[in-house]
């Protein structure tokens, strides 16, 4: 009887310890699962943010290319205007090349080198 009481007391002492260990093991398993889920979520978030960043970079590149093209066109127009500027200073009807004139029969320009007018 005394031995049975001792055994029951020992079991009574051991049972809470065993329960604690079992609970700790379950907690560890749950924590591991949670960590795996968190890692998966982090990977997904990283992938999505990378995709978003790539899309934004492409948009920015397109915009900058368009801006550069527009600037190039403006520069080309300026260069063309500068190259045609001497032509614009010549009176209407005469070309800057000596001897060439407009289709009019009479040229009123004193710059015209043709003597036939």
From TrEMBL:
Source species, domain of life: Bacteria
Stated name of the protein: Uncharacterized protein
Phylogenetic classification of the source organism: Bacteria, Bacillati, Bacillota, Bacilli, Lactobacillales
């Amino acid at each position: 009887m005394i031995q049975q009481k001792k055994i029951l007391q020992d079991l009574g002492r051991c049972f809470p310890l065993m329960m604690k260990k079992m609970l700790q093991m379950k907690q560890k398993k749950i924590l591991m699962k949670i960590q795996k889920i968190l890692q998966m979520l982090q990977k997904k978030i990283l992938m999505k943010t990378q995709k978003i960043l790539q899309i934004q970079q492409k948009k920015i590149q397109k915009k900058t290319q368009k801006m550069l093209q527009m600037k190039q066109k403006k520069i080309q127009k300026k260069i063309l205007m500068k190259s045609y500027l001497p032509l614009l200073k010549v009176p209407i009807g005469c070309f800057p090349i000596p001897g060439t004139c407009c289709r009019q029969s009479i040229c009123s320009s004193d710059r015209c080198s043709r003597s036939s007018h």
